[in-house]
Specification:
Order of helices and strands: EEEHEHEHEEHEEEEHHHEEH
Helix content: 25-40%
Number of strands: 13
Mean pLDDT: 91
Number of helices: 8
CATH topology of the largest domain: Spore Coat Polysaccharide Biosynthesis Protein SpsA, Chain A
Number of domains: 2
Distance between the termini: 27 Å
């Protein structure tokens, strides 16, 4: 099975009701995410959603969508449920499943390919991505920081820990985690079968469950930033981002 990209999409957002269908620059959020993914990835893309309206919208864009249980506890569980529907019995432990967040209206063009390239450069169970952030933004707990150890003269390395705190202490360059994951079938299966871990519960970061299971996180440094949409304020900010003629534009 070639790598498959699954975009989890949930309608029941408390901060931004019906978030996938909310208009950003006169286009629904999920349409921005899907079209940006389509421009950056040549493989199969599936939207995993819990509402027929989202399915209809994705299909109107020429895309593929599957219906998943609206009560699933997380986007990762939704990705796994969609993967099982799509793959059926035709799976191997070498399958690669990419989880691209359904609220990432803006992300660098090379994000997906660099994330996949981690598997070729670092011993990895789960691949992800990071970007550089200025010291002034490090104190913000909504910005997830990564203790990232890069290989020499390389954009690839190990993600050793994730935190809302400023880590590692005394760093001259801090790294921000970008919400994309590429799992092997085994790592994804083990992840969703496990309970919420102690550190995950403290930091409210799902990544820490994988680390507690002994899963290896590899990461790639990408240029630029990403932007997720959670509130009405984010909608306005995303529209400002989309007006720029730079790496965020398809």
């Amino acid at each position: 099975m070639q790598p498959i990209l699954i975009i989890p999409s949930r309608l029941a957002s408390t901060r931004l009701p019906h978030k996938p269908l909310h208009l950003i620059a006169e286009k629904p959020l999920i349409a921005h995410v899907y079209e940006r993914a389509r421009a950056a990835f040549d493989g199969r893309i599936v939207v995993a959603c819990c509402d027929t309206r989202v399915i209809a919208l994705v299909k109107s864009l020429g895309g593929e969508a599957v219906l998943t249980d609206p009560d699933l506890p997380s986007g990762t569980d939704r990705v796994f449920a969609a993967y099982k529907q799509i793959a059926g019995q035709n799976t191997t432990n070498d399958d690669i499943i990419i989880n691209l967040q359904g609220d990432m209206a803006i992300f660098p063009k090379d994000l997906i390919q660099h994330t996949l390239a981690v598997f070729k450069n670092v011993p990895t169970d789960i691949a992800t991505a990071v970007c550089r952030i200025p010291v002034a933004d490090v104190a913000d707990p909504s910005t997830v920081k990564v203790a990232f150890e890069a290989s020499e003269d390389s954009i690839f390395g190990k993600a050793l820990y994730f935190s809302r705190a400023a880590i590692p202490y005394g760093a001259k360059q801090f790294f921000k985690h970008i919400g994309i994951y590429a799992y092997t079938k085994k790592s994804l299966t083990d992840f969703v079968a496990s309970d919420v871990g102690h550190l995950e519960d403290i930091e409210k970061l799902e990544n820490l469950r994988g680390l507690s299971l002994g899963q290896r996180f590899g990461a790639a440094i990408v240029d630029g930033d990403y932007f997720s949409v959670d509130t009405l304020h984010d909608v306005k900010k995303a529209e400002e981002y989309l007006s720029k003629k730079d790496i965020y534009v398809i």
